[in-house]
Structure formats: C-alpha cells, structure tokens
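Why do we bother with a discrete structure alphabet at all? Because it lets us treat a fold like text: something you can write down, compare, and reason about line by line. To make this less abstract, here is a complete entry for Activator-dependent family glycosyltransferase. Read it the way you would read a sentence in a foreign language you are learning: slowly, and without expecting to understand everything at once.
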Amino acid sequence: MRVLFAVYGAKTHFYNVVPMAWALRAAGHEVCVASQPEIVDAITRTGLPAVAVGEEVDLRLRSGAGGDDHVTSGSSWRDLNAGVTETRPEELTWDYVLGTFTIACSMHYEHATGGRPMLDDLVEFARHWRPDLVIWDAMTFAGPVAARACGAAHARMLFGIDYIGRMYGDYATQLAAQPPERRDDPVGDWQAGRLARFGCPWDDTLATEMMTGQWTIDPTPPWMQFPLDLPFTPVRYLPFNGPTAVPDWVHEPPKRPRVCLTLGMTAREVLGGDLFSTAQMLQALAELDIELVATLDAGQLAELDTLPDNVRVTDFVPLNDLLPSCSAIVHHGGFGTLGNALAHGVPQIIAPGRYWDEVRFGERLADRGAGLLLDYERLSGDGLRNQLDAHMLKNQINRLLGEPSFQENAALIREELLATPSPHDLVAELEELTAHHRD
C-alpha cells in the first residue's frame, strides 16, 4: 500500500514519525513524507522520499513588532496552547471550552501549522499520488482533510499527551447539552469549510474523526495518558535523533557519574529561547562531583564567562548514543528527550518548559519514582531565581545518583516499553485498519 505521512515543518515532530515510516517502508510499502519546505532537507537526509507542500512558516511566535521579545511573551506559542492544556474540571465550562477551540481553530490549527497553502498543496498531491493511508502528526490538521479528499484511511500520530483529544471530548459532550440557541460549533464550521473547499461533504458524524483520526497511533506510555474513549493503537517509542556522527568521547567510560543537561532543539530553534537561565543551571550542576555533558549552542553559552573543568559542552550529540553512559539527565520535558531517557532507563529531572505536556510528564514520572519535577512555580524568565533554587536542583541530582530506587524504577519502565509493540510489529495491524477504513 501507499502511505503518506503529513507533518508540519518542525523537525522534532518529523523525527517522531521516522521509525514508523521506515518500518512501513522496510515491510515493502511505498512511503512519502509531506511537509513544509524548511524541513524537506531533513526528511531526505533520513532516506525517506519528501514532497514540499505549502510555504515556509516562521514558527517563532513573538509579540514585538521587531521580533525581539522573549518566547514567554503574551502571544507566544505557549499561550496559544495554554487553553487546550487546561485540566481543572472547575475551569472547563462551556464558555471556556468554546473559547479555546474558537481561538485554536481560527489561529493555531489554521495558521501556525501551515494554513491554507499547506492544505491546498497536500490535497493536490494526495489526489495525484493516491495513498491508501495518511498518517498525520497530531497538530497537522491538513492530514485528515487530504485523506477525505482522496479516499484514504487516516490515522493520527501523537507526539505526547493527548490534550486535544481530551478537551475535544469535553467540547463534544457540552455542545450536545447546549440549548439550540447556544449551540455554536466553531470546530464543525472550521472542518466543514475546509472540506467544502475540495468538494467534500461534512456532517457531525465526521467531527471526532477529523480531530482525532479514524484511529490514533500512540507512542506515549499508557500511564502518562488520559483515559479517553478513542481507538488507540500503542506503539513503542523508538529514539530517532537525526542523521549525525557520534563523537568518540561518547563511548569512553566516564570517570565520574555522567549527567546530561539538555534543553532540547525546539526552544532554541523554533520558540526563540529557553524559559530560564541556562548559565545558572549549568553552574549549579557543575558544583557537583559529576561529569556534566551539556548540549548547548552558542546563543545559550553567550552568558557564560568560563566553563568549569568537569563540564563538556557540545552543540548536539545524539541522546540515543549518549544516554547509555549517563546516570541521570536534566531536561525541559520535551517528548523526544523524555522518550530517549525512558528507552534507556535513565532517571530524569524535568525543569519544565510550559508549552504542552512538560509539567504533566514530570508529575507522572515522579509518581512512578523514576524522576523528579523541578518546582516550576519557582522558575521564571529570569531563571533559577536564587541560591535556594540552585541548592534544590543539586539536592535532586544527589537523590537521583544516591537512591537506588530511581534507577530501579527507570529500568522497570524500560522493560514495560520493550513489551510494547514496535513499529515493525504494528505494520500488519495498520494494513488491516487501512483495509477497513479506506473509502
């Protein structure tokens, strides 16, 4: 069969689908990846065929006219996502949920991940190439439209916790309970308008499918997810860090416990910067009797005068190769970094970004006894604000290194992941589901 992957132009989201794409290709299926022009080179470097759709989009959302505001500014990516990640029942009134999806459909889902140019090009290519199955990144809502337009089955692939599926369930339930005069449906209007553009009818039986797929491929451990009444197909998270060379020093046995500090690619490449001071974190960790490996670029190093002797800084190193030699990792809570650490059974400290699911990841990891969550209420745009916070961070690292339970629980999670079907194991099920759902 032919399988089209649709993902908007963020490398971290693309890297999440690479193992599944290669599993299908290795099983003899034709595979193509459609995305915006800025990551076409990244796609082809993985050996996968690519097609450019839409226009280049600057994902670095900032509020200042000159584009110099920090990522924590009022109209940032974080703020666009904030409504969807709300989980407190008392806050999830109809007005709140309605307002969240009104803004999300008109701004975030419509424009920030490709907009009309990507949608038009993706549908045109899908109608030409005629895929049997479209697998779309959970933020790439052009995917299900293209699938409907060409008669393909379609599956959503998650990149983390399913906040969209959870809140859309609340939305659908509360919408049905509204009196007729209050039954505004911005999600349905948005979906119908996009489908009508290509001559495809819409009715409310398609609403959930267009938001959450005919089924969902989920690489997230079940103990991290919400219990949702949706068709989920679990798959093991396999690390993919991009095509890169591995430095020789990675394979040298460390003389002291090796700890990795990484704040991910998304903050520095897409979101305009880190949420807190890299220098203060690095200096606090360097005071410990460890070997600290920090993956930082020149911008993140700019505020550092000197590097302590026990710190090795590299712009990038594949975590899949580095983490087997690490005793702990400190990171921002991004799904790719978290998944690498879970796959290698490495205890974690999460100093959370506040873009999507970082805090919930940290809470669930702490519940499992495999990591700790930094007190994110004490983190600000100015960093770890005082010596007490730096002291807390050092204490947490000492706990991870000194208490065997963290390593034991991380190893237990790794064993659970190994028992989850791999992308290779999932291929036959995808073939069956495609045959069932394809129009």
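What the structure line is telling us, in plain words: Residues 61-77 have pLDDT under 50 and may be disordered. The longest helix spans residues 94-112.
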